[in-house]
Amino acid sequence: MACTALVCVGFLTIPSAVEAQNYRFNNVAIEGNQRIEAGTILTYAGIGRGETVSAGELNEAYQRILNSGLFEDVSINPRGSTLEIRVIEFPTISKIAFEGNTRIDDDDLFGQIESAPRQVYNPAKAERDVAVIVDAYAQSGRSAARVSPKVIRRSDNRVDLVFEIFEGKKIEVQRLSFVGNRAYSDRRLRRVVDSKQAGLFRALVNRDTFVQDRIEFDKQLLADFYAARGYVDFRVTGTNAELARERDTYFVTFNIEEGQQFSFGRITTVSELPNAEAAEYQDALRIKPGEIYTPTKVENSIARMERLGVRNGVDFLRVEPRITRNDRDLTLDVEFALVRGPRVFVERIDIEGNTTTLDRVIRRQFDTVEGDPFNPREIREAAERIRALDFFETAEVDAREGSTPDQVVVDVDVEEKSTGSLSFGASYSTSSGVGFSIGFTERNFLGRGQRLAAQIAASADQANYNLSFVEPAFLGRDVAFGLDFSLIDTDADFSFYDTTIGAFRPSLTFPVSENGRLSLLYSAAYKDMSNYTGTSGILATEVARGDEWASGLGYEYTYDTRRTGLNPNAGVLLAFGQEFYGLGGDQEYIKTSARAIAQTRVLNEELTLRATLEGGALNFLGSDDSRAVDRYSGQIIRGFEPNGIGPTESLEQLGGNYFAALKFDAEFPLGLPEEYGITGGAFYDIGALWDVDTTGATGPLASTSFNTRQAIGLSVIWQSPFGPLRFNFSHALQKEPGDKTQAFDLSIASTF
Questions:
Q1: N or C: which end of the chain has fewer CB within 10 A?
Q2: CA 30, 32, 38, 43 torsion: positive or negative?
């Protein structure tokens, strides 16, 4: 702020002899102040009546008044025994406006700036607001945004503050490159980082814009990726973000050092506690020498040991991993030491920021409650579980000292985000024509952590209605309570008869082991067949039975190694279940299903191999016979249409009481730019659908026995903005009379 000529001469350029001059004032005259009290200005000046002050002290008084941020200009003039202080106050802000912004709403910008209406206008504060707005645009990928503050003078010393914004275009990441990587290709590492290259659908993809904070996050993702694969010395030595000459794209390069891959060496356990036997805790380990080292296995082992200590009543047990490095054979010896931790207790857990989510939804992510011994590892795990809920933009969990040194307060600070979605879709298939769908999903229903989903899908000859609800912590336990309702209507254009199939299925799912889950369920089903237009005697007999009810109990056990994530490149899923119908209703039968999936990545994770084995059996009891609406149908293996294989009468598909399928898949890059999101696949399927236990056939029967079908094919997998799509080009190697082959189909690409 420019000072008056008098002040400049009096305090900045006076010679040293004058600087030594002292002043003594009996009176102070203050002029120009309208809102600020004279006493307030005197307080800032710090000069009292009758005091002797030097020229330097007058200059300091001037600076204090000016630095208060209340005045646009200040001058101090000694007039004999009177000190004159003249001020020009900063105006007050009448209103604040934003012009030129379309990408960020006014409300969002108001929430970030310091300036506010009815406050004193401060140019320094306005400049800070400019920097905040520019940073907000940079976070959304608009690094070229410019902001200019404009002041419009009004009467009564008021101003309007206007931020003129030029948003500019998003600056995309044209190319992501890596230097120093030997074990993994650029293509593989691009799938690790959160930033993406600009592709064909750049208008729909936000992660291809350049955001500096995202680059920092990518560095951590790379470190975690390599650490999980045994590269303990990995580090990112630097990143280079180069702006293109046209200033519209960035070229981002990560410079990395991979280091060597280490494996586990000797795994031992020692105990420093008299009531903890090392051998017992050693038996709880699942790590084997020779396996690739990963911190996840060490953390899981510590958690398993500490849980064992809780069960054995050993309070404050801590497990310290002591790692010895063997550079000669590239192994890491791990010694798990059982030690006594500090006697610190959890005083309380404070939760802030959850405006929608109930406190109990967050609290149940903690295994620790108030009064329990404090375990830092358990608090870290709880923080990860809170983030995994995906209910919050940010979730910070910290511990601080409580009311006494042996007490700890755990602070949880979260920021809510939207958890609901509304979807619309359209589809086309050769069997059902054009279809439309609408769906609603809420992952945090009423802030209770519950999931609610509803969907309606309809085409010319088929309509599906689904409603599902899941309470993940039924009665406050680690038990998921689910409710599923479904209704399917088809007409004779879809098959040779109309069907109405409704189902109601409540279930309870709970853990039985580290990787195992057990579901107990009740199922009630309504099935109706009508308006038959074909020539099959079997189907005519089944349609004549009209509507039937089935009611029963069931269970399903699943074993999924992906829960612990011990091997980032492989996983196994096993599932087996049975349903026993006859608890009332019109039908009595047992339905058995089984599924096994194994997947691994090879060739530096460029090639994904997957094998799937699945099957099912229907066993009707007594005099009951199955009907087409009960039996297995659909697409059993690729290369054949839905309802395209299995028993037939007069070439009409009947479905089967038994099915089995073995599928082999390989997925691999095609050499196309990664931003296209297109990869390739190959598959080989072999399967069978057989057995019909009903009678009344009037036409020739075929394929009622176990006869396998085989098909091979190639796939194009596209990670489209609308979801992963899979285009299958198939060729049937083995088929039976009456089968309906399918050379091409489009489906949603499922992931394991």
A1: N
A2: negative
